[in-house]
Amino acid sequence: MPKRPxxxxxxxxxxxxxxxxxxxxxxxxxxxxxxxxxLTRAKPTVLATPAETLEQLLAHRYxxxxxxxxxxxxxxxxxxxATRAHLTALLDVLGASTVHNPVxxxxxxxxxxxxxDCINRNRAVGLPVIVYLSYSGLGPDIEQGIDHQAxxxxxxxxxxxxVPVVHYWRPALPANSxxxxxxxxxxxxxxxxxxxxxxxxxxxxxxxxxxxxxxxELADPHLDQQSADSVWPRATWDFIQHIPDRYAAHxxxxxxxxxxxxxxxxxxxxxxxxxxxxxxANRCPAGQRELCRREVPQQRAVTEGxxxxxxxxxxxxxxxxxxxxxxxxxxxxxxxxLRDRHNLAQVLAVTVRSPQDPAERxxxxxxxxxxxxxxxxxx
Length: 379
Fold this sequence. Notes:
32% of the residues lie in helices and 15% in strands.
C-alpha cells in the first residue's frame, strides 16, 4: 500500500468534480495545498490507468453529465513526460467515450505541442476542454521549479491555437500584491485569456503554519482565516474592486462557477445571480448577465423527491433537511462532508447550508456561505 495519504481518484470540489488518477507533483510551490499530504516534491504516482479512470468516473456516486471535470488537481499533469502521456491518453479515452462533460486542465507548466494537438482533436469530437493557467506573478522563491517564462508563453500559444484559456490568479500573497506585479500579471493575461478568476488565498485547516510562513500576519489569533472563503492582502482586494478602465473589456470573477458559466455559455447554476457577489464583485459581461437573467428563472423546480433520491445516492438516506423551493435552498439538519454538500448543490443547482463538521479538512467556499477576509498591511 502507498504510504502517502492519497486523495480519492474521483472527488468533489466546490465547483467541479476532480479526477485524480495521478497524484504527487515534482514541483515545490510553498503554498500548495498538497504539501501537508506529502504530495509536493514527489514523484507522481499513477493510481489508475486512463481506462480505469473512465470506469471509476462513470460508476461513481458523484458523477453527473452536467458537472465540470477538473483533471489532475493533485499534480501538474504537464510537469513530466510520463504525466503528459497519461493526460493525452486520458483525453483521448474521454473523447472516445460517452462523456461530454466540460473538462478543465490547470497548469503552471509549459503546454507542449502534443498536448495542444490532443486538446484540439478532442474538442473537435465534442469534448469541451478549457485550460486554466495559474499565473499570479510569484517568483521562483515561492513557486519552486516553475519556468515562469514558459508559463507566460502559454497564453499566446493557446490563444493562437483556439484553446479557451482562463487566467487563474491565485494565490494572493503580500509578495505578489505590489502595483507593479499586479499590472504585469493583468496586462499580459488580459490580452489572451477569456477571463480571469481571482480567488485569493485558501487556508486549509491543516495548513495554517504553512501559510503563515509566507504571510506572517495570518498568525494573528484574532483572525478567523479558516472560516473565510479566501484571504486577501488589502492591495490586491482594492485592485479587483476598482479595476482600471484599461481592463474594462476583460471579465474578472471571484466565483469560479461564474467563470465556467461564461466560458461555456451557460447560465448560473450556483445561486450567484443577483447576490452581492454577482452585483458587486464579479465583472461579468452584459451578455452573460442577460443569459442568466433569462434562463435561471426557467430552471426546473427542485422537489423533495429530487433531494431524497440524490441524498440516498451519495450515502445519506433519511437525512433530515428543509427545502425552500423559491430560493432553491436546502438546509441540512446535521453535518455532512463538504464534498457531499458540494455535489448535492451542483447536481441539483441548489444552495446547500449545513452545520459545519469540526473534522472538516477543507475550506468552506463562498458557495457554502463563507465570505472573504481582507488583511491590512502592517504599519
